[in-house]
Design brief:
seven-stranded antiparallel sheet, 30% strand, binds N-[(3-hydroxypyridin-2-yl)carbonyl]glycine, Jelly Rolls, 218 residues, binds fe (iii) ion, 2 helices
Length: 218
């Protein structure tokens, strides 16, 4: 018997999809074979559009470091949360989305019951031990009929999955290297977050977790 929580190199033990809601699930290990390629892509993206700590409209510095690729990138400052065609740090277009990223996202969406998902934006989140992401909804995308596909790489994390209302009961799910979460439809506006990342070291990412969330933003 091995303990996934205690083995920082581990991927999830079972590959059975985990149902989070009527239209939300975790595809265990779906991206594990493609992880090295995805991480090489993240390095290239970060070389052109550096990881940065965005400031919320309320003036708080976000603990998670972020960058983007695709035709639209998510950003935040005193003017609000929004998608932009250019990286505010450089004034240049965001790095293009690698073809292998888009393919993975549509395959995962399809496996979760969403046909024809074509992302135009990837938000890349980087967590180090101690970093958390507070409960939030993803609602800045134009058309909420499209699902979101979220890929976890590197150190494991505890995902919080709540309801449509902020005060609804929150479930906790462990996410491991290579896991993919897909949600949309009736579950598209559920609150979610990441608990503070535990200490650790992963052979591919070191002391970090990388999360890719694929969206159709425009
Ligand atoms: C994360 N993910 O896993 C943060 N949002 O690091 C998200 O905020 C998220 O995983 C929308 C859909 C899926 C997600
Ligand atoms: Fe989110």
């Amino acid at each position: 018997m091995t303990s996934p929580a205690g083995d920082l190199f581990a991927v999830a033990e079972s590959r059975a999809p985990i149902v989070l809601g009527a239209q939300a699930c975790v595809l265990r290990g779906f991206a594990v074979d493609r992880a090295p390629q995805l991480l090489a892509g993240v390095e290239a993206i970060a070389a052109a559009a550096a990881f940065r700590h965005l400031v919320t409209p309320g003036g708080r510095r976000m603990a998670v470091a972020m960058t983007c690729c695709g035709t639209l990138g998510w950003t935040s400052d005193a003017r609000g949360y929004r998608y932009e065609r250019a990286d505010p740090l450089t004034g240049h277009a965001w790095p293009a989305m690698p073809g292998s990223f888009a393919t993975l996202a549509s395959e995962a969406a399809q496996a979760a019951g969403f046909d024809g998902f074509v992302p135009d934006s990837v938000l890349v989140n980087r967590y180090v031990p101690g970093t958390k992401l507070s409960l939030h909804q993803d609602r800045d995308e134009c058309d909420l009929a499209h699902p979101i596909v979220s890929v976890s790489l590197g150190l494991p994390a505890t995902f919080q999955f709540g309801g449509d209302a902020r005060g609804d009961r929150v479930a906790r799910i462990a996410l491991f290297h290579g896991d993919v979460v897909v949600w949309g439809g009736v579950d598209r506006l559920r609150h979610h977050g990441i608990l503070p990342l535990a200490d650790g070291h992963h052979e591919l990412t070191g002391a970090a977790r990388i999360n890719l969330t694929f969206r159709r933003a425009g």
